[in-house]
Design a protein that fits this description.
Blueprint: H1 11-19, H2 21-29, H3 35-65, H4 67-70, H5 81-97, H6 99-109, H7 111-152, H8 155-166, H9 172-180, H10 182-199, H11 205-225, H12 238-247, H13 267-271, H14 274-303, H15 313-339, H16 345-368, H17 375-388, H18 396-403, H19 408-433, H20 440-464
Helix pairs in contact: 2-12, 3-5, 3-7, 3-8, 3-9, 3-10, 3-11, 5-7, 5-19, 6-7, 6-8, 6-19, 7-8, 7-11, 8-9, 8-19, 9-15, 10-11, 10-15, 14-17, 14-18, 14-19, 14-20, 15-17, 16-17, 16-20, 18-19
């Protein structure tokens, strides 16, 4: 990585600054809040809903299996720990399956159609969860969660597809970070409120009714006000639309006259591109460490530090509050560096990805050596680890659009699909290593493995990662069967 002094110049930096002149001029004319910011806010709300629907069962299942200690007026189910683990993992069975197809469908039918239909169906199924538990037991709830995972598999690829249409390159990291911070916001809201809802007179079923109902409200709002691209939006001004088109002009082939869905997907080019292969690695190692923390840290703190942070909803949510807050801090720093031309795009991606993976690598090792009587230190290290992870939104997470605006949704589907397989494997590996949950030496191995993944994954990203549009972004379009002129399909 090469950092440059503000206002300095050399080879690549000069070329990038020259290519961004049109964008700088356009942004200067329309730098205030616009329709693109409202569309990104709707995406933020979508991801908030998606993660609220994803994590609500992890809190609700505690009350569902121990209603007597929370609110005895509602049904209680005698589900074993194995059954509960099965229910919590069933979401990802469906989630992994639809990742790659979702990217293709988002290109063909538009990101709005896919994300709207996926979250609308998922919201309705959430509302039906208490009824399914009553009439079909854990088996029907498990099937319901698999279908919810299938529905949510479209969310990230569709979000990336929409971002590639709405976000000017210089605003891509900032707008993308804001949209994806909805992940943490939804997690925070659910962890902080679900316990209170379960203990209230409306009981644990209302966890599903409220989260599913909010999802339905979002779907109605997005149906009327959401747009997959500036071309679809009727309320956008001519000036703002011109800003977006001008800023993206350097990323679109000038002779591309065919609709994007007619462009053949260059699968072979994807998997022979070092830049994309290391992007898969970076996404995968991030998920390995993130889900190791999310699923295993509560057990570690209970059995090694004698502190069960799951019993305190606010404390459980604290690491994600840190990640949510730090993502905006990093976004502001990135915006300042880019606006002053202090740093190239590729350097920015590698810098923030390094902060998001290498700093947690160090704190994970430190967490492994915390003594049982230092639980406060452990909580601080945990918050620092997850908080620094927020920098990856400005790293690998936006790199899909850098490499290929035309196929960003498909690239996200591929990397997210592989990464979520890692998310399933990581807890299984922990279970294989930690045969005695009270043995600090075994837990130390778990943290060392996660740290090693962070080290190797980000090192490869720093060496081979790129942030310029790849040649395979503009493959030759398929010839039409007739010569009748057609209006370009908008996404």
């Amino acid at each position: 990585m090469k950092l440059l002094c503000c206002g300095g110049s050399n080879g690549t930096m000069d070329m990038e600054a020259k290519n961004s002149t049109k964008e700088d001029e356009a942004v200067g004319k329309h730098s205030g809040l616009g329709i693109r910011h409202f569309q990104i806010f709707l995406l933020f709300c979508a991801l908030t809903v998606a993660y609220a629907l994803r994590v609500n069962l992890s809190v609700a299942v505690v009350a569902m299996t121990d209603a007597a200690s929370v609110n005895p007026d509602f049904p209680e189910y005698d589900w074993s720990e194995q059954t509960k683990s099965l229910l919590l993992s069933s979401f990802f069975w469906g989630y992994v399956i639809t990742q790659v197809p979702a990217g293709q469908l988002a290109r063909k039918y538009g990101g709005k159609v896919m994300i709207l239909s996926g979250l609308a169906v998922c919201s309705v199924l959430n509302i039906l969860t208490p009824i399914c538990a009553r009439i079909g037991g854990w088996q029907l709830v498990c099937a319901l969660r698999v279908v919810e995972g299938l529905c949510q598999g479209v969310v990230f690829p569709s979000t990336h597809t929409i971002l590639s249409q709405w976000a000017p390159p210089k605003e891509r990291a900032t707008l993308g970070t804001f949209a994806y911070s909805g992940n943490q916001f939804g997690t925070i809201i659910m962890l902080a409120t679900s316990g209170v809802i379960a203990a209230s007179p409306i009981g644990w079923p209302s966890i599903f009714y409220i989260s599913g109902g909010i999802g339905c409200v979002w779907a109605v709002v997005y149906f009327f006000y959401g747009a997959g691209s500036p071309q679809e939006c009727k309320s956008i001004s001519a000036e703002e639309r011109k800003l977006i088109e001008m800023s993206q002009a350097d990323e679109v082939s000038s002779d591309q006259e065919q609709p994007k869905e007619l462009l053949p997907t260059p699968w072979l080019s994807f998997f022979t591109s070092p830049a994309f292969l290391v992007l898969i690695v970076a996404h995968s190692v991030h998920n390995w460490g993130f889900w190791t923390l999310l699923t295993e840290i509560p057990s570690y703190m209970k059995n090694i530090l004698n502190k069960d942070i799951k019993s305190n909803a606010l404390l459980s949510a604290l690491p994600y509050v840190c990640m949510f807050a730090m993502s905006f801090v990093f976004s502001s720093i990135s915006a300042q560096l880019n606006n002053r031309n202090c740093i190239s795009r590729v350097t920015s991606r590698k810098l923030f990805n390094s902060i998001g993976l290498w700093v947690p690598m160090v704190t994970l090792i430190g967490l492994a050596y915390v003594n049982p009587d230092q639980s406060e230190v452990a909580v601080v290290l945990l918050c620092f680890t997850v908080g620094m992870n927020g920098a990856t939104y400005l790293g690998f997470n936006m790199n899909h659009i850098d490499l290929s605006p035309n196929f960003a949704g498909i690239l996200m589907g591929i990397t997210n699909g592989v990464a979520n397989i890692m998310s399933i494997i990581a807890p299984l590996i922990v279970g294989f290593i930690v045969t005695n949950e009270h043995d600090p030496e075994q837990w130390r191995i778990v943290f060392f493995i996660a740290a090693a993944f962070y080290l190797v994954g980000n090192t490869l990203f720093v060496i081979f990662g790129k942030a310029n549009v790849q040649p395979w972004n503009d493959p030759p379009a398929k010839p039409r069967r007739n010569s009748t002129p057609q209006v370009e399909s908008q996404h």
